[in-house]
């Protein structure tokens, strides 16, 4: 589990992005951070994988302060998916997904076999393996992004507005795929969105943030709907 304890982030220009946030994120569940643009969701996510250093407070993963772990080992334990997938444009789909296993020292053959298996898991046609990102639709590229994040089988998945740039019908399919992946693989998924409908559709727990980086509510979807 991820324990965020009294964490604040003040950027160099004085902006307080996150203000004394405390949040318990359980394993084997989808926790959604939701709130208006600029309320500190991305900053919170980036503090979990140490792309942003907190100004104060502590973040623990399974009891261990993340500052005590080498940053590479920490990031290897966390898949990261962003809007517009962030794919390597000059590499094929298969090689995009195989990148992380290759970095972990797997042979090219084994990494590609793993990538092919992940393509199937996220619902990508095997015929797309040799294409390049620009030859795929936005929804397909997001599937590649999810497959790439799953490649090292990390216990934690951090997802920053992963489905926001695709149309509503495709988004619905991606949400269902994610719920299926979660039920099969049992990750701790932290999912950022500004869309409350999306939060309620996929979240087991929803952290509602408000402007100024404060937590307004942390509850199950049915409690949020009835409040
Ligand atoms: P959200 O993801 O909810 O849109 P962010 O975490 O991206 O919010 O941003 C929270 C606040 O911090 C915003 O006011 C944003 O402009 C500001 N911010 C984000 N990154 C930086 C940065 N590198 N330097 C200064 N301010 C930043
Ligand atoms: P996102 O849509 O992922 O929240 P943004 O467009 O808010 O991204 O930010 C893009 C980049 O600019 C990020 O690296 C973020 O940290 C940085 N950033 C955002 N707001 C500010 C700001 N006010 N000052 C400096 N950098 C910022």
UniProtKB/TrEMBL annotation:
Keywords: ATP-binding, Nucleotide-binding, Transport
Transferase recorded as keyword: no
Enzyme class per UniProt: translocase
Residue ranges occupied by any ABC transporter domain in the UniProt entry: 2-227
GO terms, molecular function: ABC-type quaternary ammonium compound transporting activity; ATP binding; ATP hydrolysis activity
UniProt EC number: 7.6.2.9
Family of this protein: Belongs to the ABC transporter superfamily.
Protein's name according to its UniProt entry: ABC-type quaternary amine transporter
Organism expressing this protein natively: Streptomyces albiflavescens
Taxonomic path: Bacteria, Bacillati, Actinomycetota, Actinomycetes, Kitasatosporales
